[in-house]
Predict the 3D structure of the following.
Amino acid sequence: MRGICLCYKQPTGMHTPNDLFRRRPHDTYFEQVFKVLPVALELMRKFLLPEQVAALNLDTLQLSSESFLSAELREFFSDLVYTCETTDADPVRICLLLEHKSGSTGRRIYVQLGNYLRGVQDEDIVQQRSLFTLTIPILFYHGKELWSLGPLREQYGAVPAALAGYVPHFDFVKVDVQAMSDEEICSMQDAVLLRNIFLAFKHAREAEYIRRYFREVLIFVRENVPEEVLLGLFQATLLYLQIVSPFNKHEIMEIVEALPQEYAQKAKSAYDEIFEEGIEKGIEKGIEKGIENLLIAFLKKNPDWTDQQVAECFDIAESKVKTIRLVLYAGS
């Protein structure tokens, strides 16, 4: 099997962008920046072989709503799926996969990728396509552990030529950000949007680096890309750093004040939005906790009331009453 996939964790449920950043900062940032077409194009042109790029008609590249993550695979990956045509007009899927773990991937990565590609094939079968769709997986890895694994076929050692056909095989593109030096990243003149993103992924938790090189990380510049797209990438990166980095509000504002005026204004708005939303959520939690305490006191004084009666009285779900009653009895 052959293909290109870039994976990130698929967000589930209804959440605001800021809420998603707080809950799942790495995969949410991954989704926000790599769903931007110029960024995805830079990634493919940078990490695919020149002859592979030449075989693709990237003018037809578009983001798909598909995801091929099973419930089990969502623990390990997030994914973004792009589609395009080859120069022969045949369809291709390019899947971007974000690897979630910060530790060593181990050989299980081959099993996980194989399961992902089988999910792609299952979709082709369900849709009754006459042929399987060529799929290119691009695996984005930013863990601290050194990636030492080679191609899948190398994991079988020496195999007699007569038996080589039984060795399972598929290719994937590996993007290992931690293995790239800062000099290597900063020298990517043909991928200027990726430079900021890679530096953000690599150094987000390093306060001193961000203080020193915040312009290189936060200010996106590229010709022929609309200003609103560049500012959107800036806001997503700033929000990611706010969540992941150890900075407080004062330190963030010091950095913001040193940015160009249009960036500084966007940054202040973004920070105020997330800060105020955080306060609102704190108030909501406080109210919820107050209701719980009131409920506990009520149940202690009225143990004969049924769960349904209490739920109707407080206008809450009966399951909530059951849960609090179980906690109350367990503590008694």
